[in-house]
Each structure stands twice: as structure tokens, then as C-alpha cells.
């Protein structure tokens, strides 16, 4: 009797193990046997991994000189921070290699994805024209990659790659900086704020639609940070009021709610469209309000730059003097525009697996796993 009970327990226990085993082997297959979904990256300096090294542009729209990259790569790669960017951490979470820039000369294989982002780029062609790869040109570069994938893999496999891939965006900030740099009163009127944001979001939505038409289904977006409080803007305003520019932060808020609405609309109207939107505004705001909670000592002044808040864009200049902090991980901002690697690591973690309050309606972890469990036909 005791023995029978024991055998029953053993049976139940091993069944559990067996079922657990199926689940975890499924999981292992996904992570080990087949290639993870590809990652295609679009946007601006927060995501550029070196495309601007290869275009004729101004030095302030490049980051291929010391001290950029100092904390991780020990060399400047073109990333506008001291180390890795958000897409670098995401590719790591997704078990992908580092995703290379599209213009890197030795890159001909796109099965893990590729990075089209460009420092200074916006959704509008009028944003830094001739000096950046604007979002429309990034889309044309994506078309070239898409065609090459079809030629190389055949339509069926290329379709699968494109529809399981994740498309990551950080764009919009430069569309607002560019006119502001020319005229700091540009966003004074509410009318201009609304007109302008709807143009920026309209152009972004078009690009999303085009990628969808080529088979893209899973998208990830960062919204805009409180633009008016970047060290660069605080330096511009340093001799006036309290530092921050309220109009610029207001326009960032308008942009963010328009983005959120546009994405909800797409999700409800376009079959199979799924996205992760990270509330970057709130993430940065929280770190600015509670630095020590997140391990920062300085959230107003940049690590690298000159002038008030080290907000003048002279980081790495050979001709003009600049200051460089000793320990970038004490800082929220590495240079007048860009967070440090430490801040990016924290944001990437929230983008990957954050709860719906900060990253929603899905997070990137969910999107990467979606439709991929146990699809043995894809195991290569
Ligand atoms: C790069 O741009 C500068 C200034 O616009 C121009 O003088 C130069 O000829 C350009 N170089 C190339 C290789 O196109
Ligand atoms: C970093 O680069 C410098 C200069 O290229 C070199 O002297 C140094 O050994 C490198 N450090 C590491 C840890 O690779
Ligand atoms: C700056 O923008 C404001 C608001 O749009 C406008 O009234 C003003 O004329 C502009 N100034 C210049 C120099 O263009
Ligand atoms: C896209 O931007 C251009 C300006 O570059 C603007 O004229 C156009 O209306 C925008 N498109 C949409 C759909 O908003
Ligand atoms: C602010 O004032 C300082 C000292 O008067 C001056 O050197 C600097 O150029 C001013 N900055 C701006 C942005 O006007």
C-alpha cells in the first residue's frame, strides 16, 4: 500500500517534470535552436551606433571621437554616450549580437537586423537637412535591406523574418530642437505647438504604415523626455529665468499624447499591429526628481561639456576647452543632450520587461517571444 502510494507520487511527480520539461524545452528551442527575431532600429542620436561616422556632416552631429564610448568600448564608435545605448541592451536581452549600423562598410548580412538611426535626424526632412539621414531616407534604406533579404532568403523566409522582427524607434526630439535653436520663441503659441506636433506624428505614422506594408508587425517606441530641461536647453536659458524651457517641455508632452493616441488608433485599425511604448518622459523625470533612488549624484549638469550645466556642445572638442567628469555613472546626462550608459541601462530594462504603467500595452520581452514559441519550421 505504502509502496503503491509511493509509486503514485513518483508517477505524478515525473509527469510534472515531464510537462515542465516540454515547456522548458520549447523555451530552450526558442532561445537556443532558432534565431531570435531580428531587430531593426530607426531614429536619432539615442539609437545611432555609427551611421553618422560615414556621412558628411558637422562634428557636433557625430560622436566618433574621445571621450564618447570611454566607459564600455574604450573607443568611440559613433554612439552619443559613454558606452552602450538602449538598442545595445535590448539586443543583449533578446540574445542577438550587437546590431551594426547600416552604413558600416563590412555589413552585408541582415538576418539579425540592422540599425538605420542617425544623430540629429527627425521625422521631417526640414530637420537638419543635408546633415543627417532623415527618417524617410532611413525608410528607403530599409527597403533596400528588405529587397536583399527577399533575394537571399526567398520570399517565405524573408516574410517570416520581417513579420517576427521588432522595429524600434526613437525620433521626434530633433524636429523640435531644430526650429527652437533658430528661434527660442518658436513654440510660444499653442496653435504652433499643435500644428507642428501633428505634422511630426503624421510623418512618423506614415513610416510605421510603410513598414507594416512590408510585413512589420511588432514595434517599440520611446516617447520624448522633458526636452526643456536638457542641459543644452538649460545652458541656452541660463542667463534668463529658472533654466528650463516650459514651451519645449509642453510641446514634448503634446507630442507624447499625440503619439500615444496615434499608436492606439493604429492598433485598433490595423490587423496584427502590436507595440511597446516606453514612457521615457516619466522615467527621466523620476530620475531627475529622485537621483539617489536610482544611484545618481548629478542630474542637472552633464558629465561632458562646458559652460553652465556643461550644456555647451563642446564634449570632445579639440579646439575649445571642455570639462569631463571622472565618474559618468554618477550622472544622468553624459553630454548636453544624451543620458549616460547607466541611465540607458535602467531605461532599457524597463523597455524590455517593465510593467504596463511604464511600458505598454506590451513590453519588448513579450513582443520578442510572440509567435515564436516552438515554431520548429523556423529552426535553422
Ligand atoms: C562635405 O561638406 C562640406 C561642407 O558642406 C563640403 O565643403 C565638402 O566638399 C563635403 N565633402 C564631401 C566629401 O562631400
Ligand atoms: C583603452 O585604449 C587605450 C588607448 O587606445 C589603451 O592604451 C588602453 O590600454 C585601453 N584599455 C583597455 C582596458 O583596453
Ligand atoms: C520667433 O518666433 C515668434 C513666435 O512664432 C515670432 O513672433 C517671432 O517673429 C520670431 N522671431 C524671429 C526672429 O523670427
Ligand atoms: C510631413 O511633413 C511635411 C513637412 O516635412 C508636411 O508638409 C506634411 O504635411 C507631413 N505629413 C503628414 C501626414 O503630417
Ligand atoms: C551668459 O552670461 C555669461 C556671463 O555674462 C556670458 O559669458 C554668456 O555668454 C551668456 N550666455 C548666453 C547663452 O547668453
TrEMBL record:
InterPro entries: GDSL, GLIP1-5/GLL25, Lipase_GDSL_AS, SGNH_hydro_sf, SGNH_plant_lipase-like. Keywords: Signal. Residues 1-24 form the signal peptide. Coiled coil: none annotated. One of its GO terms (biological process) is lipid metabolic process. It holds the Pfam family Lipase_GDSL. The keyword Nucleotide-binding does not apply. GO terms for molecular function: lipase activity. PROSITE patterns: LIPASE_GDSL_SER (PS01098). Belongs to the 'GDSL' lipolytic enzyme family. This is GDSL esterase/lipase 1. It comes from Morus notabilis.
